Amino acid sequence: MDALRSLGRVIVAFWILSHLSLLAYSSSPQDLQILNAERRIDLSSHIVKVFLTLKVENTGASPVSEVLLAFPPTQVDHIASLKAALTVGKKKRKSYVPLEVNPTDLPDAPNQTKYFSISLLNPLNAGETATLEVLYILTHSLEPFPAEINQAESQLVYYRDSAIILSPYYIKQQTTFIRTPSTKVESFTRVESTNRAGTEIKYGPYKDRPAYSYSPVIVHFENNKPFAVVEELVREVEISHWGNLQITEHYRLSHAGARHKGVFSR
User: What is the pTM of this model?
Assistant: First the structure.
């Protein structure tokens, strides 16, 4: 009996210590601020690639083990891939360490904001900084307008986003760059500190933006890239008795861009 009581006390003590450790490294959005954020949005194909660089600082008193990314509900459903890495070293000795990223929830999220959590390899202590590189890819985020075109017309599409990076943290300084496939841009939203040069539209720099700041923008531009979508893929793998391998793939493709109208001629 004494042995069982001792074992029980050890288990309880371990449980308490493990939960205290988790509490010590848990963080709230008020514990971090973003010193500098740079976002580059690539619209050169039918998928949208977003490169995000964040320099974060722990302004709280306790170590922080995660950094949150925020997305509007209209965008989160279109995320096909999301990766993050920690920048280590400088210049020629710079390297990138992959980090784990998982969806998460926050209570009372404003405007149905959705979140992903980046798990740091080592907790960020009070006063320390870290630079993160984030890449996420969006699909079905370019809307053809007009929805129908004839063979001689160029394909025009809309892209919607925000000039201000949506974040649960205060951002001290930030800039967003949007790159289009060509200089043929029908229109784009002009807000404070908007500039365009060639195929690039620049929003910012913006300073001292509070958490959850948002400034909707729309870019209407030419994009004649194929908008191929795989609606169904069936892969057949056949292995013979003699060890031969045969793989056959069946694709059902569709065009997700503007629909064709009128006469088609080669």
Answer: 0.84
